[in-house]
Specification:
This protein has 19 helices and 31 strands. By secondary structure, it is α/β, with parallel strands linked by helices. The chain folds into six domains: about 100 residues, 3-Layer(aba) Sandwich (GIY-YIG endonuclease), CATH 3.40.1440; about 50 residues, Orthogonal Bundle (Arc Repressor Mutant, subunit A), CATH 1.10.10; about 180 residues, 3-Layer(aba) Sandwich (Rossmann fold), CATH 3.40.50; about 180 residues, P-loop containing nucleotide triphosphate hydrolases (Rossmann fold); about 60 residues, no CATH class; about 90 residues, Ribosomal protein S10 (Alpha-Beta Plaits, 2-Layer Sandwich). The strands form eight sheets. The chain has a seven-stranded parallel β-sheet, with helices on both faces. Strands 17-27-26-18-25-24 form a six-stranded parallel β-sheet, sandwiched between helices. The relative contact order is 0.08. The N terminus is likely disordered.
């Protein structure tokens, strides 16, 4: 763990300043005698011909003579980056092998938030002026505006015009006439959640778990897994821990894997605390991000719900971290600084000496191993809340019950849909494949439409009339003629996506009200909230979606879940394929029967004897985890071994191969380490870059970082070549 950063102004007037750039470390600068620049201060410093904002990181190194140092230009009027945040930057940098400045960039991702907030003015009635005696003609609109102002506090001009039902010209006329005047308004602050607003009546098992979590707030650092079946009330339980942290005057961070999940959580939070939490995700506008960053840094934001990047916000009083759906692979950041937000949340909690709570109905094997070893505590909710029962899960063997040609629903699933709709209940059809079809080919010559930038097929999105690459975002219209043979109108869609599935359901059940829920149709928390509300209000009979539908949603009338292709995630050579498939199917199955109507789940599979299918059908999660653990332990794979991936990217295949061979010749011989590769990545070309992979494998008690540092020491790569290091990789594309 890094040493604690200094907390007082360096006596000799020299400091190290870390800049949000991919540099080796911090640079030394002089602090003018009339300036205060303490560790954590945001400062403007010169670098070459530019002036950049950085953070004072501590005392100078004395490596550069004092007379050669450039002075700090100014100190910004913004809360300092907390000491624990600077420790966290150093830790993540060392662990991920990313330059510390790149990690710092995530802490100061909103450049405008470092600038002074613009002053705001409001309007009030002019003192000592009686409108009726002023000689100014008072129209009905002017009278309404004056009456609105007299009733309450100062108002901004636009708000006054809207509330009084007048035009902006009427307001300007009152200002010109001297009947109202402007005053400075205090900067807005968020409404604080009320821990006592609506305390819920928890069931005995929930209350016991909530009390245990609340006690963790008094004991410094700890990690607790809140493990409960889908629908067991885990959110209600952990919100009591949030309430306890608020009562202690602490800030709380809740991490979610997808921004679309915020919709129902915000509603639950508002019902419990009387106001929504602060949000932090990519869908916020620039002004919202600027405002929220300052509220968080200043301590006025008490609870933040956000995506993985929220972990790097400068909380001055953080007292609790929650990671909801902790098993989700979306917590892994794959670009830029590569990190696993769940694991880094635990590190952030340890550095801050605060508790972390991991929440899941299907915890990751890493978390289960930490519970079994005693590193993490565990609380379990074994039953659904309010007397609801878990759904019955059945397999449909596609080898025997095969759908008709160019159809994807078996007879059993189709009949179950018919029964559900006849009972005025709702159904969910799950297929984890966006678009209309995953592959489009020419029937005449077999040519396949492929992305020009990646080794990936283009996916047809018929709703939008486009072909798209799901890896680089390339899009194009489908050509009328085959690029290879020139034959017209011979393209065929191969395989189903959710759009094609919706087409089939619409043909079978023309009266049913359908909706498709994917990241293409639900791109913001607002869009997610609107769709969720439509399902809750029974404006939708059949919901068709990808993995976005599997997470956290509660639909009381949804009684049937049909998984169209349960085997879809089991291929591809990913070491976590079985675990991820089990988690995903268990989660999507958990959407059925969450209220007083029993649920039913039908899994269409070509391999009902697969361990994942057997575990789902029997409900024996423990047996599946034991089997998966045995296999990983046998081959010393995570969490019983360590991995690190090195991905080389070059503009041509020849350059990629040549650089990979040069690096391969420098692999050190160290006991306990094995290097696989170089080999073309499964996505051998991505966004126009040709990619080669190495995979480092070692024992759990060894450090792959030290091995990689020793390996790469002295290697100078051409500027045209990229090297990406992924410690503990989750994806292998």
């Amino acid at each position: 763990m890094p040493e604690s950063h200094a907390s007082s102004r360096p006596e000799d007037g020299r400091v190290r300043v870390l800049l949000p750039l991919p540099l080796d470390g911090a640079y030394d600068y002089l602090v003018p005698a009339d300036m205060a620049a303490e560790p954590g201060s945001f400062v403007v410093v010169p670098l070459g011909r530019r002036e950049l904002v950085g953070v004072v990181w501590g005392p100078a190194t004395d490596e550069v003579p004092r007379e050669k140092l450039k002075p700090v230009v100014e100190t910004l009027d913004v809360p300092k980056l907390p000491d624990v945040s600077r420790q966290f930057v150093d830790w993540v940098s060392s662990y991920s092998m990313a330059p510390p400045g790149m990690v710092l960039r995530m802490c100061m991702s909103v450049r405008a938030a470092l600038e002074p907030p613009a002053p705001q003015t409001g309007l009030v009635p002019a003192p000592n002026v009686v409108a009726e005696e002023s000689g100014v003609r008072l129209t009905p609109g002017r009278r309404r505006a004056l009456e609105v102002l007299r009733r309450g506090p100062a108002m901004m001009s636009g708000d006054l015009a809207r509330e009084a039902g007048v035009s902006p010209a009427v307001v300007r006329g009152l200002i010109d006439a001297g009947l109202i005047e402007t005053v400075d308004l205090p900067l807005p602050a968020p409404v604080r959640p009320d821990a006592d607003f609506a305390s819920p009546a928890l069931e005995p098992a929930q209350r016991e778990a909530a009390d245990a979590l609340m006690k963790k707030l008094d004991g410094g650092f700890s990690v607790t897994l809140l493990d409960g079946v889908t629908g067991s009330g885990k959110t209600a339980v952990y919100l009591e821990a949030v309430a306890a942290a608020l009562c202690k005057g602490k800030q709380v961070l809740v991490l979610l894997p997808e921004i679309a999940l915020t919709a129902q959580l915000l509603e639950r939070f508002t019902e419990r605390f009387g106001t929504p939490p602060l949000e932090w995700h990519s869908d916020l506008t620039s002004p919202e991000r600027r405002r929220n960053w300052r509220w968080i840094a200043g301590g006025s934001a008490r609870v933040v719900v956000g995506a993985r990047s929220a972990l790097f916000l400068p909380f001055p009083e953080l007292g609790l971290i929650l990671v909801d759906e902790e098993h989700e692979s979306a917590f892994k950041q794959e670009d830029g600084v590569i990190y696993q937000a769940r694991d880094m949340a635990v590190v952030r909690a340890q550095l801050g000496e605060i508790p972390a709570i991991l929440v899941s109905a299907t915890p990751s094997l890493e978390t289960v191993a930490n519970v079994e070893s005693g590193r993490y505590g565990s609380l379990h909710l074994p039953a659904r809340a309010l007397g609801a029962s878990l759904p019955a899960i059945e397999a449909i063997d596609l080898r025997r019950d095969r759908p008709p040609r160019q159809r994807w629903l078996s007879d059993r699933l189709r009949m179950a849909l018919e029964e559900t709709l006849a009972a005025k209940e709702q159904a969910l059809l799950f297929l984890n494949r966006r678009g209309y079809a995953p592959l489009t080919l020419c029937r005449h010559c077999g040519y396949r439409l492929q992305c020009p930038n990646c080794t990936a097929w283009l996916v047809e999105h018929r709703f939008h009339g486009r072909l798209a690459c799901h890896h680089c975002g390339y899009g194009a219209e489908q050509p009328s003629a085959c690029p290879q043979c020139g034959t017209k109108d011979e393209f065929a869609a191969c395989g189903p996506g959710v759009e094609r599935l919706a087409e089939e359901v619409a043909a079978l059940f023309p009266e049913a009200r359908l909706a498709v829920m994917t990241s293409d149709t639900v791109w913001s928390p607002k869009a997610a909230a609107e769709l969720v509300q439509r399902v809750t209000d029974h404006e939708i009979d059949v919901l068709i979606g990808t993995q976005i539908v599997a997470k956290g949603h509660h639909f009381p009338l949804l009684t049937l879940v049909g998984v169209v292709d349960a085997d879809l995630g089991l291929g591809g050579g990913d070491l976590r394929a079985a675990e991820r498939t089990y988690q995903l199917l268990h989660q999507v199955a958990g959407r059925a029967g969450r209220a007083d109507r029993p649920g039913r789940v039908l899994l269409q599979t070509s391999d009902p004897a697969h361990p994942v299918m057997r575990a789902l059908l029997s409900g024996d999660r423990g047996a599946f985890l034991a089997c998966e653990s045995d296999q990983r332990r046998r081959y010393k794979l995570p969490p019983f071994g360590r991995l690190a991936a090195l991905i080389l990217s070059a503009g041509s295949a020849g350059d990629a191969d040549e650089i990979a061979r040069q690096i391969a010749r420098r692999i050190p011989s160290v006991d306990g380490f094995q290097v696989l590769g170089p080999a073309p990545a499964p996505l051998a070309v991505l966004r126009g870059w040709h990619r080669r992979r190495f995979l480092v494998k070692c024992r759990r008690d060894r450090s792959p970082q030290n091995f990689v540092r020793r390996w790469l020491e002295g290697i100078k790569l051409p500027s045209s070549v990229r090297l990406q290091i992924d410690i503990d990789p989750y994806g292998f594309l």
